[in-house]
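Title: Comparing notes on inverse folding

I've been comparing how different people in this forum approach sequence design from structure. To keep things fair, I'm posting one structure and asking everyone to reply with a full sequence. Here's the target:
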C-alpha cells in the first residue's frame, strides 16, 4: 500500500490587509496540496493565514507574498510545562528537524518567543531545546524561531498549547537580493503583492516610478519576465542602490536618473506601473507631496496606454483619493489597507481609462 502523505498544519505571517493575496498565491503555486483553513469569525486574526499542506516543506520557502511561514502543532496539555514531557518534547524536536532539513547549515542560534519567556518553565524549555539541537540561545531574535502560545479553541478542540517553528532562518520577506538598503525601502513581500496586483504579463512594458532601491522593480521580475522593465528615480544614490540589488537578483532592467514628473517616454507606451510614493515621514513631507503627487499622477496618465494597470502605495490617503476623484483617466479597481511598521498606508489599484 502507498503511504498516505504527511499533512502539515502551517501558518503564514502576512502584512495585514494582504491575506487574500497570500491565499491566492498558495492556491496558485501549491494547488491541491494546500487546504486553506478558515477560523470562526470571532477567531480570525488579521495578518495570519492558516493552511494544511502535504508535500515537501521546501516548496513553502518559495512563497513571495508571505512574511514568514511556520509549522504548527497543537498539544492537548493544560500548561506549557507539559511540553517538557518525553513524548511532547520529542514531537517538538521533530518539528525543528523538519524545519532545519531544508537548510541544515543555515542556523546559528535558537530564539523562543512566548508570553512569560523569562519564566522558569520557558527558560528551561529553551535551554533544553538549545542543548538538543546544538545551538546557543539568542537573547534577541535568532535564526531558529520557536513560538509557544495558548491554542485557540475550535468547534472540535478546546484549550491546550501550540508550538510554532519557523521554516526559514530568516523571514521570507528578507530577500537575498537586498544587498543595499535605502531609507524608506518597501517590504519585499508587499512589493511582490503589488506586482501581482498589476496582473503581470510577459508582454508588459513595466515602469517603476520613483524606484528607490528597486524593490518593486525586482519583485515584478521575480514574478516573471517583461518585454521591458524600467525604473526611474531622481536620486543617483537611490539608483546606485537599485543597481546593486538588481545585480544581486540576477535580473535585468533599465535604470534611468530622471524626474518622475517629466519622463523620457512616449505617450501611451507603458502597460503596467508601480510606485511607492513618499509617505511624508521618512521621505518627503506633506507639503512637498501636495505639490509632487498631482504632477506624478499626470505624468503616469500620459505614459500609460488605455487599459494599463497601476498599483501605488501611499500613506497620503486623503490627498490620493482627492486627486483620483478629480482625474477621470483612472478607474479605481481596489483599495487595500495594509499595515507596515505601525503605519497603515493604502495600495490603490488603478486602471487607465480608454
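Reply #1:
Here's my take.
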Amino acid at each position: 500500500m502507498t503511504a498516505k502523505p504527511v499533512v502539515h498544519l502551517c501558518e503564514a505571517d502576512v502584512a495585514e490587509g494582504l491575506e487574500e493575496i497570500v491565499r491566492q498565491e498558495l492556491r496558485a503555486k501549491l494547488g491541491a496540496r494546500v487546504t486553506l483553513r478558515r477560523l470562526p469569525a470571532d477567531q480570525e486574526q488579521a495578518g495570519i493565514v492558516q493552511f494544511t499542506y502535504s508535500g515537501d516543506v521546501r516548496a513553502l520557502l518559495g512563497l513571495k507574498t508571505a512574511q514568514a511561514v511556520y509549522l504548527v502543532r497543537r498539544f492537548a496539555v493544560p500548561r506549557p510545562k507539559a511540553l517538557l514531557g518525553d513524548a511532547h518534547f520529542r514531537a517538538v524536536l521533530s518539528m525543528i528537524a523538519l524545519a532545519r532539513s531544508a537548510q541544515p547549515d543555515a542556523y546559528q542560534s535558537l530564539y523562543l518567543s512566548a508570553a512569560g519567556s523569562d519564566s522558569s518553565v520557558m527558560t528551561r524549555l529553551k535551554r533544553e531545546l538549545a542543548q538538543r539541537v546544538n545551538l546557543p540561545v539568542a537573547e534577541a531574535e535568532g535564526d531558529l524561531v520557536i513560538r509557544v502560545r495558548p491554542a485557540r479553541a475550535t468547534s472540535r478542540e478546546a484549550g491546550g498549547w501550540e508550538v510554532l517553528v519557523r521554516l526559514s532562518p530568516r523571514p521570507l520577506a528578507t530577500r537575498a537580493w537586498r544587498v543595499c538598503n535605502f531609507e524608506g525601502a518597501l517590504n519585499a513581500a508587499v512589493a511582490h503583492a503589488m506586482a501581482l496586483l498589476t496582473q503581470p504579463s510577459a508582454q508588459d512594458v513595466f515602469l517603476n516610478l520613483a524606484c528607490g532601491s528597486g524593490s518593486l522593480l525586482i519583485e515584478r521580475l521575480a514574478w516573471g519576465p517583461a518585454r521591458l522593465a524600467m525604473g526611474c528615480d531622481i536620486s543617483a544614490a537611490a539608483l546606485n542602490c537599485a543597481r546593486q540589488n538588481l545585480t544581486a537578483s540576477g535580473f535585468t532592467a533599465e535604470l534611468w536618473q530622471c524626474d518622475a514628473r517629466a519622463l523620457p517616454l512616449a505617450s501611451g507606451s507603458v502597460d503596467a506601473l508601480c510606485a511607492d510614493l513618499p509617505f511624508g515621514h521618512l521621505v518627503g513631507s506633506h507639503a512637498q507631496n501636495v505639490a509632487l503627487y498631482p504632477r506624478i499622477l499626470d505624468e503616469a496618465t500620459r505614459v500609460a496606454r488605455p487599459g494599463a494597470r497601476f498599483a501605488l502605495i501611499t500613506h497620503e490617503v486623503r490627498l490620493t483619493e482627492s486627486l483620483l476623484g478629480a482625474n477621470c483617466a483612472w478607474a479605481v479597481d481596489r483599495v487595500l489597507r495594509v499595515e507596515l511598521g505601525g503605519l497603515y498606508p493604502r495600495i490603490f489599484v488603478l486602471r487607465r481609462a480608454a
